[in-house]
Design goal:
mainly alpha, HEAT repeat-containing protein, flat, 66% helix
Length: 495
């Protein structure tokens, strides 16, 4: 009936490995019931081969750290992975993908070790912390390890790392520039402040002071030499600037900033020029003009969007659909209804998709059938990992489309995206009467904070596992505040 996930790196959802890779709550429950060797092998594979499609928005580290603690797994495999010769051959970008998840898991394990009574100031009492300190001084992805330490280690533990970290940067103008960039880009500035104030290494403090001054001077120079539009530029000059970025190699995407500049300088007398640009042959100028006209709800822009969406140039077609998605007028909503009602294949696919998204986000009860049809069509053609599903899944919940529950359950089981699964869980909570006694229970063990929060609000307490899990979440120092608030609301008897 539906297209399955085509991500070859993700195991089938019915296997233990597939469940753990997806971060599903059933993954933890099955791992705890499986033979220990099998569970450890699956957990090791996940930690050492990050299964996330986008590590910047999907969570797994706390999920794997909790299971690691439950299974009483050792750290030998993680240590061997971090300090393998391959680490020294990676670029920084490759190292982020290779070791980032393992370092984050170590960070949570260090916190758990400290909570159990270990002394973080003594590395012998906290093996995960010891690994993080060692990797911060020798590993390629040292900045990630340092950020983990910055929120978990003591001042006494961080200060000795300074000389080794600064030794990574040669005492040359290029090395000093790299040092300034590293200090600027640090997610957690605490270690850098400690090293700059360390009286035991005055030369270190002086070098970091110069790096800060260099960073401030570079920022001032960039502001003075900005190549963008300046006061006095005309509409034509802004459009030419956008097109010039498109024609450069590598290409510079200036369509969005150009549209913002147009909002500051374009007046009624410039409308003919903007309409001509929105139909013209120059892709970037056309995209900027379309976005500006859509933001102003120009009476001709809907026809221009429909025309541009069929353009073979991806820049133009994408700009047309994204410009339409930003519109909030009733005319745009009515046009979306007309487009959504068109026979399949009669419109450019991007236009049909964005029309359904608008109805899902802003439509009313009369649009439920169109949203459901788009949801089914997207699953059928693109599978459970399509980005187009996100607003449609939200819309199914917002419009309380009960008939969507079977499709939503399929997405929940099969998608490799834990973020999409969390959105699906929220929609199932309002469309599927079986959710509280079904998926909501396993969601209490899910990798995503927002999904655990939905579960804490809806899971049926008739299952003996639910109350025990709620109590453990309430006592877990690593749990997020939103989840614990929801948990306390379920555990506290009504007044």
């Amino acid at each position: 009936m539906f297209v399955d996930s085509v991500d070859s790196d993700i195991a089938p959802s019915g296997t233990l490995l597939g469940l753990l890779q997806r971060g599903r709550g059933d993954g933890t429950l099955h791992a705890l019931a499986a033979p220990r060797a099998e569970a450890l092998g699956a957990l090791r594979h996940c930690v050492l081969h990050d299964p996330r499609r986008d590590w910047q928005v999907e969570h797994r580290s706390l999920y794997y750290a909790r299971l690691h603690s439950e299974l009483d797994a050792g750290l030998d495999d993680i240590a061997a992975h971090l300090f393998a010769p391959a680490d020294l051959l990676c670029t920084p970008e490759e190292a982020e993908s290779r070791t980032g998840l393992a370092l984050s898991v170590l960070g949570h394990l260090a916190s758990y070790a400290a909570a159990r009574g270990g002394n973080p100031a003594n590395p012998q009492d906290n093996a995960p912390l010891r690994l993080l300190r060692r990797y911060a001084t020798t590993g390629t992805n040292w900045q990630w390890a340092l950020d983990e330490l910055a929120v978990r280690d003591t001042d006494a533990g961080l200060r000795p790392l300074g000389p080794a970290v600064l030794a990574r940067f040669p005492r040359t103008p290029e090395g000093d520039a790299e040092l300034a960039e590293a200090a600027r880009d640090a997610f957690e500035p605490r270690p850098w402040r400690l090293w700059a104030e360390d009286p035991a290494h005055p030369e270190q403090a002086e070098r970091l002071r110069r790096a800060r001054e260099c960073r401030s001077f570079d920022r001032w120079q960039r502001q003075l030499r900005s190549p963008g539009p300046r006061p006095g530029w005309s509409v034509r000059e802004i459009l030419d600037w956008a097109q010039d970025g498109h024609d450069q190699h590598p290409r510079q995407h200036r369509e969005a900033p150009a549209a913002r500049c147009l909002s500051a300088v374009a007046g009624p007398e410039d409308r003919p020029l903007l309409l001509a640009a929105a139909r013209g042959p120059h892709e970037a100028a056309r995209a900027a003009a379309l976005r500006h006209l859509a933001d102003r709800n120009d009476p001709d822009v809907l026809d221009l969007v429909e025309e541009a969406a069929a353009d073979p140039a991806e820049t133009v077609a994408g700009a047309a659909t994204s410009a339409f998605a930003r519109m909030r007028s009733l005319a745009a909503l009515e046009r979306a209804r007309r487009w959504a009602a068109a026979p399949e294949g009669a419109l450019p696919s991007g236009l049909a998709t964005v029309a359904a998204e608008m109805l899902a986000c802003r439509g009313g009860e009369q649009d439920a059938e169109a949203v459901l049809a788009a949801l089914r069509r997207t699953i059928r053609l693109e599978g459970p990992d399509s980005p187009a599903l996100w607003p449609l899944v939200d819309g199914a919940g917002r419009l309380s489309i009960g008939c969507a529950a079977p499709v939503l359950r399929h997405i929940y089981r099969e998608t490799a995206s834990s973020q999409l699964r969390g959105r699906t869980a929220r929609s199932l909570a309002v469309t599927d009467p079986s959710f509280p006694a079904g998926f909501a229970i396993e969601c209490l063990w899910d990798c995503e904070e927002s999904t655990r929060q939905v579960a804490a609000e809806h899971a049926a307490t008739g299952d003996a596992r639910v109350v025990e899990r709620l109590r453990r979440l309430a006592a877990d120092p690593a749990e997020e505040a939103g989840v614990q608030t929801a948990v306390r609301g379920r555990l506290t008897p009504p007044a």
